[in-house]
Write a structure and sequence with these properties.
single chain, 339 residues, mainly alpha, Multidrug-efflux Transporter Regulator, Chain: A, Domain 2, three-stranded antiparallel sheet, two-stranded antiparallel sheet, disordered C terminus
Length: 339
């Protein structure tokens, strides 16, 4: 039996509209109730939809794929109906959704991947790399992967060749990713507050959306440049301190790394000698249960001081123990007497 939709007349029953749009009948009715979709025309006892409804459903599906909520979509469609247009807004979304790196993904088979890591066939590490998104499975294949960031994989290969276990590499990446995501969130909050807030107070028109897209293009590289510069500065300072702390006594004076100098302090009149720099804090992993217990006891702000005080007390107790037993400060002698 032929239907108006089959005849291409642009008059559809709800079942025809559902089939053509890929939207369930229940969802179509929900969109109508929420005002996202115009009400159908009533012909006799039947509701009849037309191409306007079909186009609107496709617009909604496209916006949902771009990450918009139904509430936001309703506002955008209201702006569209008022003549504002969606072209500029969707262009802005395309700009934000575009690649934030010039890297091109590559494909690697499992044998090639194993060879890159010196022949180590650690399938658990492969699984973890898939979870982290360092590797992505290629649909329709078993042992073939897409590598979104060849540079990131190359870093892992070099670290493993230098002796770092695969588990330590993926663990470090998890930690690093959390910190980088925090930095990106702060940068977005910062730019939203000072740059993009005026575009978010109402659905932007085409001119405003085009201006916002141009700003995204200008600001896109700034986050990367800032992180690169700050990481280089921090690495130089920390690496110098690290080398001095571990090798300073073994190096002749001429070979010891010079104190890093802050450029802001390099100019101006000479200053009196400064006291020795404070000891650099060292991060020590603690069991989550231990941290939770201390936090419940002294509160989040008191955790570092409590742990430091407990460690100091334990060290002092062991030192007094050693002195009382006549072992001085020699742990070997103390342990020998205990055994």
């Amino acid at each position: 039996m032929s239907t108006p939709a089959d005849a291409g007349q642009g008059a559809y029953r709800i079942e025809d509209l559902s089939r053509l749009s890929g939207t369930t009948v229940r969802t179509i009715r929900a969109y109508t109730d929420r005002g996202l979709l115009p009400k159908p025309e009533r012909l006799g006892r039947a509701n009849v939809y037309d191409d306007t409804h079909l186009d609107r459903l496709r617009q909604i599906a496209d916006l949902l794929d771009r990450g918009y909520t139904l509430a936001s979509i309703k506002e955008l469609l209201a702006a569209w109906d008022a003549g504002t247009g969606l072209g500029g807004v969707l262009g802005l979304v395309d700009e934000v959704d575009g690649p934030w790196s010039d890297e091109q993904p590559i494909r690697m088979g499992l044998p090639e991947l194993i060879a890159a890591f010196g022949g180590v066939a650690d399938l658990s590490a492969v699984e973890e790399a898939l979870q982290l998104g360092v590797l992505e499975s290629v649909p329709g294949t078993v042992d073939e992967f897409e590598v979104p960031s060849p540079r990131e994989l190359a870093v892992a290969v070099e670290l493993h060749a230098a002796g770092v276990p695969l588990g330590a590499i993926t663990g470090h990446l998890r930690e690093l990713r959390g910190q980088v995501e925090y930095i990106s969130e702060r940068f977005l909050e910062f730019t939203t507050e000072y740059v993009f807030q005026r575009f978010l107070q109402h659905p932007p028109n085409d001119a405003e959306a085009a201006e916002a897209a141009a700003l995204v293009r200008r600001l896109r590289p700034l986050a990367q440049h800032t992180v690169d510069a700050e990481l280089a500065r921090a690495m130089r300072l920390r690496a110098t301190e690290h080398v001095r702390r571990h090798l300073g006594d073994a190096l002749p004076p001429t070979a010891r790394p010079a104190e890093p100098v802050d450029p802001a302090e390099s100019a101006g009149p000479a200053e009196p000698p400064r006291p020795a720099p404070r000891e650099v804090p060292v991060q020590v992993p603690l069991p989550a249960a231990t941290v939770a217990a201390v936090r419940s006891l002294v509160g989040p702000a008191g955790v570092p001081a409590f742990v430091a005080a407990a460690a100091d007390r334990e060290v002092a107790a062991r030192r007094m123990d050693a002195l009382a037993s006549g072992g001085g400060s020699d742990p070997a002698a103390r342990d020998h007497r205990r055994h």
